[in-house]
Amino acid sequence: MIKPTPPVVRDDLPHIGAGLRFAQSPTGYLRELRAEYGDVFLVDVFGYRLFCVFSPRALQSLYAVAEEDASFGMATFDMMGFKTPLEIFADADIDLFYELLTVERVRGYLPAFNQVLAMELERWGTNGELDVFDAIRTLEQRIGFSVWMGAEAADDDYWPQFKAAFDVLSQENAFVNPQATLHTLVSNKAEERKALAQLHELLASIIDQREQTSHWPEDTLTLLYQRFSNPDQAVHRRKLVHNLVNANQGFLSNLYAAISWVLINACRYPQHGQRLTAEFQATREQFGDNFSEQQEALDSMRFCEQMLMESTRFAQRSLTLRKVLREIPFDCGDHSYTLSPGIYIATMLSVTNTQTSELSRFDPDHYDGRRLKPELVALGKETVSTFGHGRHACPAQKFSHNMCKVVLSGLFGRYTFSELTGDLAPSAQQMGGVARTAGPTRLCYTSI
Length: 448
Ligand code: HEM
What we know:
This protein is of the alpha+beta class.
């Protein structure tokens, strides 16, 4: 229940009609509804009542709402619960991300970023053709295995097996492929549970090895092994594995697509590509050949930050949701509404991120480093979002910029790129996270 009643989207087929149109093109459909119903309206998507907000004041209210009133955690659980075995959520601790993403830890991940990048580029060889999103996704996955589960997990013996299991658990297609989602539901997540069992086995073999040799390097696996220590070995292992799975999944959700877009945009717009490579060269000259292992060197690379922010702004398809847990007032500017439990307050970043004529133009100079120029969001900073706003804003922003800088400087330090072909637009179907393209995007590379 919402009081007073906002504009309500009518459809001939209650729940389902809007649901099907939403699944086909969430951004396109919400844009159409906004044009017809205004900046605030209620739409029923497969039984989920979405109170959609796009006005500056309402967006401010969304990002300011308290977790105990309207919950990010519960909304995420509802969306991801279709696919992810629920036992993972029961053990996963969101605060862990904050612990793993402190400035000191983020700096400490740089050697692993560089080592795995070198291994992966060795695999790419001297020349070839990339399917950009798949190649960068695999690269990021492998770096993540090393950062979260130990250097062993990125070795040839392990990483393809980890990748196969994590690909089954991937949320990416959960909403854009209704048939696959139906299979997941009807089978009671049989494939996903099998993949989780495989991850338990793979991690057990790394942990057993460390226990037997008493070799515990200073890394995330060791930290979490100690953190979830429990007299009951089964509970210890379960909590450890579930938190590692959660860390890997959260890590993969946006970043690989954002880095892929930076690579694509650097090749698509030669003037930006040249500025980027000039920045890499200048940083190398100032800080030496191992600049990509030094936090200070990475911090100085502001144009790369601008490329990541602008590329993300364009490809963001995040459906931002808060599930109302108790009756709350919600200020939308022209009206203040009372929202009942069960309603989802919703906005979709792609509907507002490019809504003015200036914002519909790709230009990395819209940003000053990571900061969007204030004149572009005169009505309110919440009208554009890349890494979010307020209490749930992304804690991995520095981490993500670091990875983008290490990967892109590594790629441009080793290869020249040519013949960008294929799909160059964010997938219309994507809902959630930074979008990849619907079809393959190809790029040829040759050693310098
Ligand atoms: C380009 C890369 C990324 C982008 C654009 C991005 C974007 C976002 C956005 C928009 C939110 C806020 C969601 C909301 O308000 O509903 C968010 C939250 C979050 N992100 Fe990211 N993210 C990125 C990378 C990452 C990575 C690499 C990790 C993990 C290592 C991560 C972990 C998280 C977590 C844990 C939250 C929830 C924070 C909380 O609830 O307090 N993100 N991210």
